[in-house]
Amino acid sequence: MVCCRGFARAGRSPGKQGRQFYHAGGAIASQCVQHCGRHRALRHVEIDTNFWKTFVHERLATAMGDFGCLSIFGRKAVEHRLFAEHLTAEYRVRTEGRGRTVDEWKLPAHKPDNHWFDCVVGCAAAASMQGVERIGARSDVSTRRERIKLSDLQRQRMR
Predict the structure, then answer these.
(1) Are the C-beta atoms of residues 133 and 143 closer than 8 Å to each other?
(2) Cβ neighbours for 46, distance < 8 A, ≥ 6 positions apart
(3) What is the longest distance spanned by two Cα atoms in the chain?
(4) Domain map of the chain by residue range?
(5) Global pTM value
(6) What does the DSSP assignment read for the chain?
């Protein structure tokens, strides 16, 4: 588990046979409170790692300048080689079961380091839970609020 702003994060891979994560707004994560003993509670977040790993790789595969692109700063590939190795440490296997198709992510037999990939995946899930959306993504809910003048607020308070 990784601590993320007061929450521990646990990645779960439900796979083709496991339970699906459903959440409003497209956030494939859930906040949970697990009671440990009589007086302690552990707050944590469970994420569908298969969904978020696929999401991150789709963002990395998006062409530079297109909506939804995830890019890395700089132009020197040597500076980002280790980060790139972590991002490509796992491979996906497309599987079918229970009437749905999922990408399951697996580590090769030699188990290379993938810690930074897991961190990027956790950041993507956390950003989604906080309401961050891709540029150009359609939003059903209008987030634009009507501006209110301070003088109007003062008048309402006087009434």
Answers:
(1) no
(2) 10, 11, 12, 21, 29, 30, 32
(3) 72
(4) 2-158
(5) 0.66
(6) -EEETTEEEEEE--TTTSPPP--GGG--EEEEEEEETTTEEEEEEEEEHHHHHHHHHHHHHSPTTSTT----SSS-GGGGHHHHHHHTS-EEEEEEETTEEEEEEE--TT----HHHHHHHHHHHHHHHTT---TT---SS--PPPP--HHHHHHHHH-
| Alpha-carbon gap, residue 101 to 111, rounded angstroms | 25
Q: In what order do the strands lie in the sheet with 40-48?
A: 2-4, 7-12, 40-48, 29-36
Confidence of residue 152 (pLDDT cuts 50, 70, 90): confident
64-92 confidence digits (pLDDT tens): 888 888 888 888 888 899 999 999 999 99
Which whole number is the average pLDDT over 5-14?
A: 51
Nearest to 53 by CA among 111, 115, 105: 105
Strand partners, 48: 12
For the four alpha carbons of 104, 109, 114 and 118, in that order, the dihedral sign comes to: positive
Strands 29-36 and 40-48: antiparallel
